[in-house]
Specification:
The complex is a heterodimer of chains A (about 700) and B (about 675). Chain A has 16 helices and 35 strands. Chain A has about 700 residues and is α+β, with helices and mostly antiparallel strands. In chain A, strands 13, 14, 15, 20, 23, 24, 31, 34 and 35 form a nine-stranded mixed beta sheet that branches. The radius of gyration of chain B is 26 Å and the shape is globular. Chain B starts with a helix and ends in a 16-residue tail after the last helix. Classes of the chains: A alpha+beta (about 700), B alpha+beta (about 675). Chains A and B meet through helix 7 and helix 12 of A and helix 1, helix 2, helix 5, helix 6 and helix 7 of B.
Amino acid sequence: MNHPQFARRSRLGVDIGGTFTDFALVDAETGASLGLKVPSDSADPVRAVAAGLGELRARGVDLGTIEYFVHGTTIAVNSIIQRSGARIALLVTDGFRDVLELGRLRLPVPWSFYSRRPAALVPRELVVPVRERIRHDGEVEVPLEHVEVDRVVESVAALGVEGVAICLLHAYVDGTHERKLRDGLIRRAPSLFVTCSCEIWPQPREYERALVTAMNAYVRPAMVRYLAGLEATLRDAGIRARPYIARSNGGIMSTGAARDEPVQTLLSGPASGVIGATDIALRAGFRDLLTLDMGGTSADVAVVEQGEIGSSHDGRVGDLPVIVPAVAISSIGAGGGSVAWLDATGVLKVGPRSAGARPGPASYCLGGEEPTLTDAFLVCGYLDAERFAGGLRLDAEAAGRALGTIAPALARSRTEAAEAIVRVALANMYAELTGVLDRRGLDPRAFTLVAFGGAGPLVACLLAEEMNIGGVLVPPLPGTLCAQGALRAAAMTDIVRTVREPLSQLDGRQLAAAFAPSVERGRAWLEREAPTAHRTELRLSAEMRYIGQAYELEVPVRPEWLERSALGPLATAFHDLHERVFFHADREAPVEVVDLRVRAVGLVDHPPDPAPLPPSRQSPRPEGRRRVLIGGGLHDTPVYARAALAAGDELDGPLVVHQSDATTLIPPGWNVMVDSGGNLLASRKVRDAN
Amino acid sequence: MRTDKVTLEVLKSYFVAIADGMGHTLERTSHTTFVKETADFVTALATPAGEFFAYPRSIGVTSFLGLNMSAALAAVGPLRPGDVVITNDPFTTGGLATHLPDIHLFKPVFDGGELFCIAWCFIHCSDVGGLAPASISPDAHDLFQEGFRLPPRLLFRRGELDRELLELFLANCRSPSENAGDLNAMIASLNTGEHRIRELIEKLGAGVVREGMHEMLAWTEARARSLIAQIPDGDYSFADYLDEDGDGIPIRLAVTLRVRGDELELDYEGTDPQVESAFNLPAFGDRHPFLAQGIINYLLSEEPHLPLTGGVMRPIRTRAPRGTVVNPEFPAAVGVRYATVIRLYDVVLGALAQAVPGKIPAAGAGQAAMVVLSVSPPETGSRQVAVLEPMFGGGGGTAVADGASGNDSAAGFLRNTPIESIEAHIPVLAERYELVPDSAGAGRYRGGFGVRFDFRTLRPGSIVTARGMERTCFEPFGLSGGQASGRASAVLNEGSVGERELGRISVLHLGPGERVSIRGAGGGGFGNPLDRDPDAVAADVRAALLSEEQAAARYGVVFRDGVLDADATAELRNRLRTNGWRPVIDRGPSRFAYEQVWSEAAQGALARCLLELPHDLRTYAKREVHRRVDAMNLEIPVAADTIAPLLREVLAAVAADGQDERPGGEATPPGA
């Protein structure tokens, strides 16, 4: 097959997932796009990139036309989850050697005899206490003497480490001691990689800051090796574009920046999906969104209010907190690989254990024998065994056999057991998703569910029905949306500076002066990272709280507020936000500015929107029919090819829409229309008035 | 079970989502720092009979799961739509509330005129008055010193707020506006629960939901029963101590666990009488979860998917003799009752370990101490109070793994405070917050290490308290050949002229530049230390958590020039093995020494005799008997049958000192 539309200039997004590596190719002139999935290679992820590039070339794509390349990598997150990172040392203030071991003390499962905090990223023998101490106000309590620097440098040299993380108490106020140590280390071993907490993320709370500092040094060697392999692969494939790497905050950065701050990539995978989903939904005219990216092992959910993607500072990798800004995403333990099982009283449970990509669902025939959600989907008739995502074939008999292990105990046929698994999985997802909305006090009826990933479109309508969500949007290429999203991302970094002053003690000029160094850094970063940006922005915000509180709210700061001396508008903005989030505000109570943030954004120009889908000439014809079990009833259900649907088509459920990267299920009682952007918009049918 | 086993799991998700949703509403809209930062609150739905069938999994505390509302419901009589009940009183709610800062609110939910279920929530609020700010002080001698007491009363009557009741309550609190805000949040939470359960009824029908809530309880009960049935039948006794009641005499908590088929009973007969300080636990009822936390955590550890409902208490009976520290008579002070709950946890696990050895961890550090600093900054003059750190210690080793360091399942929900936050908040300088080397009880799987927290005061007039600090007298026990760990301790101004061992801290008045060091105990070890993998011993030595001398002495592992010497280790271990008998439960040297005089039999006899006295005489009589025994300078155990005569002497002396001066009624000497 040839793709003449990619003949001149194109952009390529590549996203690595646990099961598949996804490719999204977009024609820079027409906006037309192409999706591709190839199996991931966990041992050497670059191989899957090379394989996908080969596949694109085989399909007639001239890789030399790729002028822009964005890549989402899981190298960093995997080396933390698998604890396969580098041997590094951590330097801490004397007296606080167990900062990583103790963490915040709480046990993951507080009541369990067997629950333990995750093992420290840096074992105690590689944690080096340093005699020095800075107080919270920057006053030096114990100076860092030259002899102490020399002693520490020598003990680090004796440890034989690949990198060093330095996190001293209150270094967010004054990083002099950290830098002195780093300079000493580098004088002795110029090739040593050193991360200072005062530079990577200078924010109070020593455990979280030490952890993010240690993570950066820990994942760095693997990232460096990987990027070298990636750059070689791209070179060999004839791609001249300078690669960009996706970040957790929803932005992108150069490979150089990714080598310096690999920790910024930890949560990038799901972030790109939210960017892509939001971008498509906004273009289709929807602004309040719940994005649902459901794949083989988990489902990632994000809330978008009024087109604004939420940002969080309390993301997690496994049980470890990550305080650098990230797109706010909740991960729930439901995926196609979720295993169905019976508890000791015979009650049906689904998950949280997942068969993952290997051995995977029984129907993959890769050695999995337990029934999974994917097996249930297949037996219920939601999926086509011959045409699963990424060219995989499913074995319905194997799925049936697996279901047979639990069906008799449930006094059900295999098919009925399959439907029961879907019901239980949906109820689990309902409970977790409701929590995501409840935490913010949001009403599901106002939201549109944007469903993507391999399994998202399959469950979207059923879940929306459970949750009372108004409508569902399935984008044109739901299986490769993360890769598409990365292409829409801006170059973006965040800079934080701790202030901790009562608002009443500050005026606009002082605040401007406090912002100035961060603004300067932001500008420099943009010049370096986004020289071709067609527009740059510096977004200012302040983390604020009532004095005495331990939690903050991020209040956007308008530049004009800094020109006046009185900061009344900032106080009002804080009270208003507090009222909106927590339903109360105390406008008389003293307020504190905890830290100041600058987000530097370099927007790239995007290819034009793809040509609208041609309007429908005649009602589409199904390519086939199959029997599908939904809601206890067996329905003779038409199956449509996604490519056969045209703008304006409207169909009543039940129906199945098939495409190579995903399957969409529209249940009875729902209908679906196709918009000019090629999105499927599903909603509940208005019930008859009689 | 009548409800289908698929529908049951689906309903469980709905119920948990409702309880979680109530919790999110409460957390989002409340004001108090306790609620936001320590998450000391929880929400639930109860059946009309008062058992929780919907309990959150992801928000709030877990220890209230087995509470029963029946006494509180009976106390208020029939409820009508729109009623909301408020209470914080242990003595009229059968221990639904267990100390006064815990405010409970509940609201009946009706369906078609019939009571369907009860929406319930509680928070630990900032203050309810009483002798100390925050309303908790170990020094409170009775309930009236602990704050404003609210027996169950209608805060809303058919949807109408009782403003007078509210004003009366708020007028007696130090932080009325925060409390008012929190009450609003609680009401919002109850309304969320009511609204959601109605939605569910509309979706599935009242019949399905009603049957589901009963089946949910039955499901938990069935699982709990099958787990209990796996515990061998028998009677298993164990006792342990709280440090003291201000008089140097340990407070003994004793239990007999009786397992019969798929049911069990925890009988606290033999436990010491109620105390004059605030350690009393108002657990009254015959099924109070605070008396069975060890059993509940055992069941949840064995079956992590156990549905969280009150059904877990159904196969469990608790018996707490009236007048003991676990079933105090009115008006006992109860503020620090959690210290007692934590020791009861050890006591129950000690008994359970005899029934199911290998499934129970050795004792953890056994305290949840709140180290609080109060200073009076010169610029404002008003006192500033802050929790510096919650202090626990190491967890006990298990049959499969070392104990957690710094915390375990007795208070696993605790979070510490970042040093950088404390120092910015209140004038203090932290000098050390670190694991304590050599503090873990040795074992095949050792205990977790204790934590020490050293800080320096910076201002004149700094006041330090550490309520809940425990285990300064007796060591946490080891199991199955594992060793007891060390004790908790505290030192003032270590290494300078004013150095002083502090023991259990009650109140310290300090000037600038004084240094306090508080060290939580490690956890007890599990299994013979000589069976510990030498590489694991070497890892602790490498981490500088175990000295080479201790490695040799406790584990028989020998290092030469910092390197493990396998041959010497094998030889030493052989030698140590031949001359060591190891108790199943190693109670530790301090307890061994104490019980050389005060045998368990003698202590039990004294506790029983004391219970027959009026409660205001018991503490005095206990101290006097102890004084007399101490004066005998015994090197052998005091005989149990000498206790009653000694007590008669004490009472005779009281009578001789004059009837008029002795408080309370006529005393009848035991056996007279």
